[in-house]
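[Structure tokenization] protein backbone as discrete codes

[Encoding] learned vocabulary of local backbone shapes

[Begin record] amino acids and matching fold tokens:

___
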Amino acid sequence: MNESRLKLLSTLLAMVGMIIITTAGLYYFENWSLFDSLWFAVISLTTTGYGDMIPVTLGGRIFLLAVLVIGIGVIFYGLGIIISLTIEAQISMMMEKNKMQKAIAKLENHVV
């Protein structure tokens, strides 16, 4: 497995892991349903924050405070990796195309 795929896989696993940990913690501390816990985890970690739900227990608030400090960093790092890999792929394609065009320009007396 090349380095880019390993970075992408580890980043996606970290992002999914943060969502699972946040969901489980909210389910435990707030006694919300799994779907409500997942909903709140996703909207919190993506910094959307609709405001339709808030943690009311002290344990839930402390847990969420700790998770969000770490989780938002993980999510944004992951998005940065994904964007970086996309840009690197586009640059690589442009360089290959440029290289091929230079090779074609050097051809003389070539008949296809």
